[in-house]
Amino acid sequence: MTGRITLTMIKPGAVANEHIGPILHKINEAGFHIAAMKFFSLTKIMAYSFYKVHEQKPWFNELMEFMISGPVVVAILEKDNAVADYRKLMGTTNPKEAEDGTIRKLFGNSVGSNAVHGSDSDENAKIECDFFFAMSERYYLLEETGV
Ligand code: ADP
Ligand code: MG
User: Fold this and answer.
1) What are the sequence ranges of the domains in the chain?
2) Distance from the CA of 111 to the center of ligand 1, in angstroms?
3) pLDDT tens digits, residue range 123-146?
4) Is CATH 3.30.70.141 correct for 5-137?
5) Pocket of ligand 1, beta carbon within 6 A
6) Cα(11)–Cα(5) distance, rounded to whole angstroms?
7) Active-site positions?
8) Mind listing the pLDDT tens digit for each residue in 29-56?
9) CA of 67 to the centre of ligand 2 (A)
10) Contacts of 105 (CB under 8 A, 6+ apart)
């Protein structure tokens, strides 16, 4: 079923600042089911591949250094309208401009260290979830979500 999954990543800065618990709490409170989850360090190749769309940006090297600076938590979130609802809960890219109560406002330091990633379309959500998780690692609420 389209539109019911998104991928989030709690980035190294938020993990280092002990924000895993509070961020997962906000996610559950907003009605998302955590369908899959991993805690590990990205390799350079994984970080590069995940953010390849930004490789020409002047801040790409900074982003790469940050993303491999420590472990991350990666999760598949399940809910109707998951991508848009999670982008809303997450807040804008720059935490200083993010709305009050959003994850990036509460737990982000700067545009480069903005606490979490969230997929930007259903198509990319599928690509990103497939990048990190096999079907056998997913525990969907609704069976049809995985079809
Ligand atoms: P979003 O994460 O909101 O979808 P983008 O896809 O545009 O934002 O950017 C991907 C990530 O690259 C951002 O979350 C942020 O960590 C980093 N980034 C974006 N813009 C900048 C910038 N101007 N300087 C440093 N890092 C940036
Ligand atoms: Mg993006």
Assistant:
1) 5-137
2) 6
3) 999 999 999 999 999 999 998 998
4) yes
5) 54, 59, 62-63, 93, 111-112, 114, 117, 120
6) 19
7) 117
8) 999 999 999 999 999 999 999 999 999 9
9) 14
10) 91, 95, 98, 99
